[in-house]
Each structure stands twice: as structure tokens, then as C-alpha cells.
Amino acid sequence: MKSSKLAINGGKPIRKEPLPLEFPGVHHMDKKEIKAAVRVLKSRSLFRYYGMNLQNEVHKLEAEFAQQLGTKHAIGVASGTGALYVALSALGVGPGQEVIVPAYMWVAVLAAVVNLGAIPVLADIDETFCLNPAEVEKCITPKTRGIIMVHMSGAPGNVQAIQKIARDHKIFLLEDCAQCNGGSIKGRKVGTFGDMAVFSFQMNKNMTAGEGGCVATNSLQLYRRAFACHDSGYARDENGRLILDDPNLHLWGRGYRLDEVRAAVLRVQLKKLPRIIKAMNHSKYRIRKALEKFPRVQLRKIQDPAGDTGCFLLTTYPDAETARKVNEALRAEGIVTSSQGVSDILMTRWGLHLYYNNLSLVQHASVDGRGFPWKLAENAGLERKYEKGTCPTADSLFERSILIAIPSCLKKRDEDDIIRAFSKVLPVFLP
Ligand SMILES: Cc1ncc(COP(=O)(O)O)c(C=O)c1O
Q1: 173 membership: H or E segment, kind and range
Q2: How remote is the CA of residue 210 from the centroid of ligand 1, in Å?
Q3: Does residue 80 belong to any structural domain of this protein?
């Protein structure tokens, strides 16, 4: 394309109207979700165990979610953060243990490990923007209890290699699929590779009820332990009766149950999930294809494009300065959403997804003011550093990359505008 004057230099912007906000599931909400929520409200049965006319929405969601995922069990919970606590508790995480986490994640991953008294150990990422298996291998010590593999920004990481490491070292693998619900590798869904998996149904996620989450596993024992932890501390049998004769299932509950209204909405969203993902994947790969013309722009390494949920496009530039200039120029061309949304930002602005932006981690913050968990006797000698510089590949990728959200309702002309903006800006900064 012949270059015209960039908007950042006073030229005409490609578009004036902001791009649609992200929120994948929300764009596909219609009368069906409304009907489902109203049905539960009319039944006056909002609690999963009883009511005036119980609809068993949570129970049905759990069965349907497990079925579409391909695991034996699923537990609906109040949030993805809650799902992390429940799964890690089921896996027996506590003081004196290290849990390997990626440099690129969401703060809830760190919080769950720390609040349970264990020590998070940062492992660097690679061009998949997920855990680098070679770096994970280097982090393993006799104190390592497990690995949390976070499938970030919509696409699966190299979970097969991480699964092998976990098996070889006899440690657990927990998959955090909050940002990749519905993603897969060669037809196998993320969330089925690990001992357990967690999902979030918060409003930014591929399916949503505003808040909510899920824990999935194939293990009956882990399922029962997780069920106990999400509820009152006791597991239940198939008939819903408390299991009181197994001391391994006498735990402490967190009260993270999911309610019937959100479960009803989520059951509708679950049916729409393939459609939502298809829309984002289609838009993203149209844009990626157009960017292949610019070999100096590095596209995120994706194992299996067909299994990418498509909610984010990540592009990486030769240096931080070029990334900054391209980003400013794209934004000036109108590749932005309204202020509530996140689109087209330098990754260094991606807040609590970056390990070194988590000041509580960097500063070893403690809720009890007495150094929990860092100063526990069991954790002596396990101290780690978390400041910038700990994970150099992540540091470099963050400062050289731009993140663009791909809403599930992009029209062809919106995609065209994104492609036109890149095609106008890139030849100027990457001749
Ligand atoms: C990777 C990851 N894990 C966990 C969570 C926590 O989910 P929630 O916001 O539902 O607590 C999120 C979402 O915000 C996330 O992105």
C-alpha cells in the first residue's frame, strides 16, 4: 500500500469510531440468557442444594461442562480465583512447598499459591507467551510440588512438554484455562492435560455470567477434595450425601459455591462457546494473514491455529522503541476501544499480568504483617527474587510487544480497518 501521511503526524485517521469492547461472551448474549435467568428467579430457588422449586442448574452445568471438555468431573465455583484456591487445596499445597508459575499470568495465580502458604517460583516464557519447558525444568527442586501452566491471551501453551516434565518429576500439573476456555491442541481441549484445570467466567472471558468459575479433573479423589474445599469442607457422594468415613475428605471449606442464576446463564453461554470462539479466531487469523507480508513483525508462536480461541492478537517488534512508535501510530489511526476496554496497548501496560508489576510479590507482602508465608519456618531457604530481570525473555517480549483484543463481534470492515492501519504504519517504522 502506498503510504499516506500518518494520523500521528496530522494525517487522516483510518477510523474515528472506537472498536467494539472486548468481552467475548457478552456480545452473543440475547433472549436465551435472559430467559434462563428469569426461569431461575421465578423458581425462587437460587441456591444449588435447595429452594422452592430447585432447577439443579449448577448440577447440570457441571455435567455439561465436563462433557464438552472431556473430563469426568467439573465443579462450578464463584470465580476463577476461587477455582485456583480450590484446586491447589485439593492438590494439598501448603507451607514448605514450591509451585512453579509463569512470568506472564494473572495475579490470582500468585495470590492462590501465597495465601496457601507456599512459595511461587517464576519460570520464564517463550514465544508462545506461555511457560518455556526448558526454563521450568531448571526451576525444579526437591521442594517443588507442582506447576501451574497458564494458557495466556487465548491460545494454548506447550502443555504437552510441561505434562511430560510433571510426570517425570512426579509433581502435579494444574492448567489455568481462564483465558483460553475452549482452546485446544490438535483437537484435544486445554484443561485435559493436567491433573486438574481451572476456568473463569468473569466478564472478560470467552463465556461469562459476569463472575463464576470451574474446576475440572478426571480424578475422583481430587474431585471430592475440591468439592469439599469449595463448599463446607466435606465431600459428597453421588446422591449428595456428605462423605464422613474418609479422613482424607475432611477438609476446610471456603464457601465458593456457584449460584443457580449464574449457572443457568452459563449453560446458555456454554452452548454458544464454539460460535464465540469461531468468530474471534476468524477475525484474528484474517489479520494475522495480512501481517505475514511484514516479516519484521513477529507473530506469536501458535501451536495449532485451529485451537486458538482468538481473543488476543500479539505482535512483537525488533526493539522496544519500534513497538512504542507502532503502538502510538496505530492508536492515532483509531485502533482503540472506548476507555473501558483494553485494546492496542504495549504489553508493559498490561498491569498485573506481568510478574514485576505485582508489587506484593516483588516486596514479599504479607497479609498477617508477620511475614506469612515468606518467613514461615517451613519456607526457610526457599526465598526467591521477583523483581524485573528475573525472567529476561518475558521482560524482552513485554517491552517489544503490542496486545490487541479481538472482540467476538468484529465486522469485516473493523478487521479491514485494523489491517489498513497496520499496513499504513508498519512500512514507516519497519521499512
Ligand atoms: C489466567 C487467569 N487466572 C485466573 C483468573 C481469575 O479469574 P476470576 O477473575 O474469575 O477470579 C483470571 C481472570 O481474571 C485469569 O486471567
Answers
A1: strand 172-176
A2: 12
A3: yes
Task: Decide: pTM greater than 0.90.
Answer: yes
- Phi/psi of residue 69, nearest 5 degrees: -75, -35
Counts of helices then strands in the chain (DSSP H, E): 12, 13
Cell numbers linked to 193: 492435560
Domain assignment present for residue 157? The answer is yes
Task: Name every residue whose Cβ is closer than 8 Å to that of residue 367 and which is 6 or more positions away in sequence.
Answer: 115
| Cβ of residue 105 lying under 6 Å from some atom of ligand 1 | yes
Tally the residues of the chain: 431
The reply to whether ligand 1 has any atom less than 6 angstroms from the CB of 79 is yes
Cα torsion through 88, 91, 97, 98, rounded to 10? -60
**What would the pLDDT profile of 27-49 be if each residue is shown by its tens digit?**
999 999 999 999 999 999 999 99
**CATH number for 82:** 3.40.640.10
Q: How confident is the model at residue 239 (pLDDT cuts 50, 70, 90)?
A: confident
Q: Strand ranges (DSSP E) for 274-369?
A: 298-299, 312-316, 345-346
The grid coordinates of residue 148 equal 501451574
Dihedral angle computed from the Cα positions of residues 137, 139, 141 and 146, in that order, rounded to the nearest 10 degrees: -80
Domain assignment present for residue 134? The answer is yes
Whether 348 maps to a domain, the answer reads no
Active site residue 412: no
Between the CA of 343 and the centroid of ligand 1 the distance, in Å, is 18
Number of domains in the chain: 1
- Of 205, 272, 284, 424, the catalytic one is 205
2 band by pLDDT with thresholds 50, 70 and 90 = low
Sheet with 345-346: list strands edge to edge: 298-299, 312-316, 401-405, 345-346
Ligand 1 atom showing the smallest separation from residue 200 Cα: 10
Distance CA 205, CA 352 (A): 16
CA angle 296, 298, 299 (to 5 degrees): 140
Q: How far lies 62's CA from each of 77, 248, 263, 270, 411, in Å?
A: 10, 23, 9, 11, 33
Residue 214 belongs to domain spanning: 31-269
Ligand 1 close to Cβ of residue 106 (< 6 A): yes
- Residue whose C-alpha cell reads 512470568 in the numeric block: 103
Inter-residue contact 422 to 430 (CB < 8 Å): no
What amino acid occupies position 430?
L
What are 100's three cell numbers? 512453579
* Residue to mutate (ligand 1; options 202, 215, 266, 311; most atoms within 8 A of CB): 202
